[in-house]
Write a structure and sequence with these properties.
The protein has a domain at 75-323: Alanine racemase (TIM Barrel), CATH 3.20.20.10. The protein contains 13 helices and 19 strands. The chain has helices at residues 16-31, 35-48, 53-59, 72-85, 101-108, 122-130, 145-156, 168-181, 212-223, 238-241, 251-281, 297-301, 313-316, and strands spanning 67-71, 90-94, 114-119, 136-138, 161-165, 185-190, 195-197, 200-202, 228-235, 288-291, 308-311, 333-344, 347-351, 368-371, 376-377, 387-391, 403-407, 420-425, 428-434. Strands 1, 12, 13, 14, 15, 16, 17, 18 and 19 form a nine-stranded mixed β-sheet that branches. An eight-stranded parallel β-barrel has the order 2-3-4-5-6-9-10-11, surrounded by five helices. A two-stranded antiparallel sheet has the order 7-8.
Amino acid sequence: MTDSTNNNQPSQPATEERHLVRNLVAGATMIGSAMVAYEAARRVKTRLQLRDYKYYHDAFAGREMPFAYVDLDALDTNIATIVQQAGNKTVRVSSKSVRSVSILKYILAAHPRIKGVQAYTAPEAVYLAEQGIDDIIVSFPTWNEDHIEAVANMIRRGKVINLLVDSFEHVHRLETIAERLDINLPVCLDMDVSSDYPGGRFGVWRSPIRTVRQAIAIIDALEHSNHLYLDGIRGYEAQIADIPDDEPGRFFNNLRLRILKRQSMQEVMTTRAEVAAVLQTSGILLRYVNGGGSGSIAMTAADPVVSEISVGSGFYGPHLYDHYNGIDFEPAAGFAIEVVRRAAHDIYTCLGGGYVASGGVNRNKLPKPYLPDGAFLLDIEGAGEAQTPVRYVGPEKLSLGDPIFMRHAKAGELCEHFNTLLLLKDGEIIDEVTTYRGDGQMFL
């Protein structure tokens, strides 16, 4: 196995498609037009559509299963698509969806407008900083004193790490520890940008900061602290980024969701604009205003207040993102499980496979058979801890020992089940890199 965690990106041969994507994306930056990047992605997509079961079967022949992989051609296409959708905004990589230092560095090196990481815990942020990654926002509050002190030590070494605050308790906690350590800590204010409508909440429960007045109160507390300063603000519009609105056979529900999303986004933009106006009046200069998610890149990019958009799942293209209006990610990451018995003429039982995604429990959180095309899980068993039966009637002649290629529902949890990722390029395995788990790191 090649250890690539200390390299800027996985080693790989130069190929026509990579040069096509990289050169055209760079050209888009120079001429100020993202359409060139989009054309690069479109032309490579034409090649990717030809990749069938045989393509992956032959590429991974002889590999012990189960294994996880990343198709770098598909990843490059997704990178170009994300850059195009983000317009002139910076893209910050959400690490919880990637969970591999090598892949994080690969993405960060792919385009000049991809900068910084949004980590999910303080220990993870410290670990990434130790691996040479900089400009990190910890996207959830940190209370543990040892974790805060570890971040402070990295800041002393010149790293840029922002801790999150959304309450007076957070401000007081960080101020007390920073005073003891005699250090100034940069922080990020997290705002709740969900929408409340008659009949229910459209969004998720995150920050308690839901109004401009509440945000101003926290900002004022930060201004009066001696060891904290406000570096940026963020608001994750999960109700827009995390809800599919182009599901087959659900025309009216899709229409309803799109209307709700547009209405909610207008509210989000208004709140951000009001907070930005207060900050400008007070003479407070922010380094960034962060928003978005993989499912709302284009909508968030239309907000003039936002300077950067966080993107995670879109790089890997898990199956939950197959049914978003105006979004088209390639399946860039997946895993293979081995057929070990044939329970019936159309039932192929595989070893393992029960890698279920987080969130509200429903069938959408199960992994799905990807290839061969037309395979699907059984309702009564789904994907199991020990075995996963797959029903398939199609042209491929499956035998014992053959792989079934699966796609995870969400991006992040995939890497929690595997120590390494096989990197595929032009039908060949060119490298094998570690995940966080393979590095011996388990942050949540």
